[in-house]
Structure formats: structure tokens, C-alpha cells
Amino acid sequence: MAHVQARRRKPITIPGSVQKENRNPLRAPPTSKKTVSINGIFDHVKGPRKAHEVRSVLSPRPAGIPKAKATPGYFTGKGANLLKGKVAQPGFFAKYRANGDKTPSGLPFSDPVADYHKTANANFERRMEQWRKELGLRRDGLDVNGKPMRKAPVPTEADIDAVAKELEELQKPIEDDVLHIQDPQTGNATKTRKLGETLEMLDRRLEKKFSQIQQLEIEQKRLDDEVEILKKQVLGDDKDYKKAKDGYEAQLTLLQKEVEKVEAQAKSELEEMKRKDRNAKKAFNLKIQALWEGINDYE
């Protein structure tokens, strides 16, 4: 009888299933290594930014914000006694400048800071002076170059004084206004008169002219009446005038016909005379021609 050796099969692994491992109780469990960053040593000094940290500590004006307390850590004792007051006050770097005069190590830091303060204050004062000057010019309606602005006009003191003077002139009586008149009768000489006096003179001249016009109208009416009376005396009544007019027109028509008749007769007689003259000239020319022919034959 043959001996058949059975083969051991590998365990079947189902995807997603967890296989239990046979651990030896005598062996220590495996350990995993942690990755540590060197920046972790500063984690204890890190924290949220404070409001006073946002402002520049080099500001020339006091901020009025108390200094925040330092968090215990690596840099705790480094700046503990630098300043025991408010941050960003004008004397913030006074201690550094004082120390810089005594210790050589303070010179590289205090001198630039002092120069910065000096330059910053000078720039600030210069800008403030420029703004004050520009504001004064704008009050007078001028731009930074001293020229009038093209925007809405801003009256100056001179403009206000000019308007006040014009108002004062306008409040005066109109009769006191002075007129300069050229008189053509005196060679265009200029005379100075007040408006009130000129108006009074004009009124007097108008009254005089109106009086003359009224007198002329009365005289014209009188002459018209006289002409009407003379017309009636010469022509008579309207009927007689019409009758005389008709007779005159009839006689004028007859006379016109007679004139036309005489003109036609004269024209006819003139034509007859011209015809006779032409015939006489023709007969005379024939006689002269016959005479010349006889003379030629005799020779």
C-alpha cells in the first residue's frame, strides 16, 4: 500500500479581512520611531499676535497701549528690563542712546535709531507745513502752484471787498450817477453831468417840443378848414363839379379825336409829298442822263 504525504495549504486571505498574527509572548512588541522637528523647541514661546505688536515700536507718538507680558520660555529674560512703561513712547530708545554713549556695543544700534527719529520728525514737520500751506491756498481758491482753481469758485477777500464796493455803489441814488457827454456843437468836447440834471433838462425840452407840436397841429387844422372853404368856393357843390368834370372829359375826348384825325391827314400828306419828290428826282435824273448822252454823241 503506497504512502501518500499530504501537502499543507497556505491560508486563504480574503480582501478586507484582518488576519490575526501569532505573537510570541517572549518577544517584545515592535515600536515605531517618531519624527521630531528642531523647530519644536520654540513652540513654547509661540503665541497669538498682540495688538501692540502690530504697531511699529518706532512711532514718534505714544500709542497708549500697555506692554504685553512675555510668555515663559527661551527668550523670557532677554528683554525683561528693557522698558517698564508704555510701548512706542518718544523716550523708548533713550536708554539705548544713553548706554550707547558708555558702551561701544550700543553705538551700532543707537546711532541709526537717533538718525531715524531725526529724519522722521523732520519729514513729518515738512509734510505738515506743506499741508498747512496747501490748505491756506485752497481757502483762497488757489492750487499748490498759486494759480486759480478750475473747480467751484472760492471767493477771496479781494472778491468780497469788490462785491461790497459794488453794492455800496448800487445803493447810491441813480440821479447822482455821472455821465460823460460829447457835444458836437463845441467840437465834440466832453462834458460831465449828473444823470438827474440831464433828466430834468430832457423833461424841459420835451415839454417845449410838445407845446410846439400842439401849436402846429392847431395851425394845420386851421389851414385844412381854409382849404376846404376855398375848394367849395371854386368847385361849388358836388353835382356842379361832376357835371363840369363830365363836360371837360367829353371835350377832351373830342379834341383827342381831332388831334388823331389831323395827325393821320398830315401823315398822308407827308407820304404824298415824299412820293412826288421821289418822282421829280427820278425825272430829273433821266433828263440829266439824256443830256450827257447827247453831249457824248455830239463829240
TrEMBL record:
| Keyword annotations | Coiled coil
Segments of skewed composition (Basic residues): 1-11
Per the record, the coiled-coil ranges are: 199-283
Which residues lie within the region annotated Disordered? 1-34
Domain of life according to the entry: Eukaryota
Q: What is the name of the protein in this document?
A: Uncharacterized protein
State the species of origin.
Zasmidium cellare ATCC 36951
